[in-house]
Design brief:
Elements: H1 2-5, E1 23-28, E2 31-37, H2 38-56, H3 59-67, H4 91-94, E3 101-106, H5 113-122, E4 126-131, H6 132-136, E5 147-150, H7 162-171, H8 174-185, E6 190-194, H9 196-203, E7 216-218, E8 226-234, E9 249-256, E10 260-262, H10 268-274, E11 278-282, E12 304-308, E13 314-317, H11 344-354
Parallel strand pairs: 3-4, 3-5, 5-6, 6-13
Antiparallel strand pairs: 1-2, 7-10, 8-9, 8-11, 11-12, 12-13
Helix pairs in contact: 2-3, 7-9
Length: 356
């Protein structure tokens, strides 16, 4: 109609219409000259990738991703929120003007500290850049902080158990080991570990009260670095970060090469669920615990990818909530999200917990 109004109607022709049923048809001369299901066409298009992936990566993961194309009813990414993402629960504490100090801890190669500092600053904290060398040389001390956040993003090149190497710089130093142990033992402190920071704190679990059931993190089942937007469920747990968020189903950025949880016992994942220290797990687009790739990008048993302590003061997680604390950071987001992304609630919850 628009083209007709401008005298260009004769220049355009209708070549196709959208139909229901998942079939693609080409008609010519009044006959159907080609017909196929969209499923078959998509699998044909993806077959070369699948065969390359089967050689390069874990062949079972390649097959699971390829077979996921068979599900024509997959609802895709979505969000289920049991809370209002725009509500600033920390506002009464921010309005006091007092900003509790939180150490944004990083090591060589960490690159997630700026987003992390921005999220904590927005929640009402004074976010302080603390490099491990500052602690080693005595330029900074954990006793001066209410919170410590171990950040992620390629510490030591994200190879050979990067978070483990970071942890050993603490465990092999009597002074640093005692300093971290004292911080963990205080009842007025909290901590968060993400990605490499998650690996690092997991290696310090013997120093953290209530962290005995935490796993180690080993290379992804796929054998590849995984960078994608994945669905997770926030589980009911005592984590101070996830208060009021239990039952949420949300997309979250994932970027790690060594994120598969490995437990001391075969039943380790079930034990974390029973003890309510499992805090986050991957789900598929039907909101079921994710067992298959790529809905479960690292292969962790039961999809569990976040953990907390018995008192909820310390939480570790492999995905990156700091990369989606603003709605505009999302490569996909519902239309009704405004300035704040739903993961902003995590950081505001921490400010509410500190209270003063």
């Amino acid at each position: 109609r628009v083209l007709d109004a401008h005298g260009l109607g004769s220049c355009v022709h209708e070549i196709g219409t959208v139909t229901v049923g998942g079939h693609f048809r080409i008609r010519g001369g009044g006959k159907v000259v080609f017909e196929s299901s969209c499923e078959a066409l998509e699998r044909r298009w993806s077959e070369t990738t699948f065969r390359m992936q089967s050689i390069r990566d874990h062949p079972d993961c390649a097959r699971e991703e390829y077979d996921a194309l068979l599900d024509r009813e997959d609802p895709g990414l979505h969000a289920v929120l049991p809370f209002n993402a725009s509500e600033d629960v920390s506002a009464p504490y921010v309005s006091t003007g007092h900003r509790p100090r939180v150490a944004i801890l990083r090591e060589q190669g960490v690159n997630g500290h700026v987003e992390m500092a921005a999220a904590f600053h927005r929640a009402g904290f004074s976010a302080v850049d603390v490099h491990m060398s500052d602690l080693v040389e005595g330029r900074a001390a954990l006793r001066d902080y209410r919170g410590v956040v171990a950040c992620g993003g390629f510490s030591f090149g994200d190879v050979l158990g990067a978070g483990g190497g970071w942890a050993k710089s603490i465990l092999f130093s009597d002074r640093l080991r005692d300093e971290f142990a004292s911080f963990f033992d205080r009842h007025d402190t909290f901590g968060l570990g993400v990605c490499n920071g998650c690996q690092m704190l997991a290696h310090l679990r013997d120093l953290i009260p209530g962290a005995a059931l935490w796993p180690r993190f080993v290379p992804n089942r796929s054998g590849r670095f995984e960078a994608r937007l994945s669905m997770v469920e926030v589980l009911d747990s005592p984590s101070i970060f996830f208060r009021g968020m239990g039952g949420a189903m949300l997309p979250i950025p994932v970027a790690h090469g060594e994120g598969m949880a490995e437990y001391d016992a075969v039943s380790g994942s079930q034990k974390t669920l029973a003890a309510r220290v499992a805090a986050l797990r991957f789900v598929d687009n039907y909101d079921r615990p994710a067992s298959f790739y790529p809905a479960n990008p690292n292969g962790s048993p039961g999809g569990i990818t976040g953990f907390t302590t018995g008192d909820g003061r310390f939480t570790i997680m492999m995905p990156h909530p700091e990369r989606l604390f603003r709605a505009v950071q999302g490569s996909w987001r519902p239309n009704d999200w405004q300035e704040d992304g739903p993961w902003m609630r995590m950081f505001r919850n921490a400010r509410v917990w500190v209270a003063d």
